[in-house]
Design goal:
By secondary structure, the chain is mostly helical. It has helices spanning 22-31, 41-48, 62-80, 92-104, and strands at residues 35-38, 83-86.
Length: 110
């Protein structure tokens, strides 16, 4: 992340755990525009119910694991986010359009 955030003109999608590292948070916040795509626990359960490629969800109760991860990660994402977008019930195209619109708007006055 340290290296990637030095480049310009790109979209960087990080994994959920990237925000746990303080240096990652510092680089992301200082060098880019951070969009936190917020999904409820219910939405996360629905999205991951048929996957076996997420090691953290392969052991124990999936809901409890997602709740624990959310409690740890959500405040960290919010700490560095320039924009928080709820994703429940929304498709990727709609979210992308909303992000583009935010970039197209002139900065608001203080």
């Amino acid at each position: 992340i340290a290296e990637l955030t030095q480049r310009g003109g790109m979209v960087l999608a990080t994994g959920g755990g990237a925000v746990l590292d303080p240096q990652n948070r510092q680089h992301l916040a200082a060098r880019g525009y951070v969009v936190y795509l917020h999904a409820s626990i219910e939405q996360q359960l629905a999205r991951t119910e048929r996957t076996d490629t997420r090691p953290l969800l392969q052991v124990g109760n999936r809901r409890e694991t997602l709740e624990r991860l959310f409690l740890n990660r959500d405040p960290l994402y919010r700490e560095i986010a320039d924009l928080v977008l709820p994703t429940d019930g929304r498709n990727a195209r709609t979210l992308a359009r909303e992000i583009e619109e935010r970039f197209a708007r002139p900065p608001s006055a203080p």
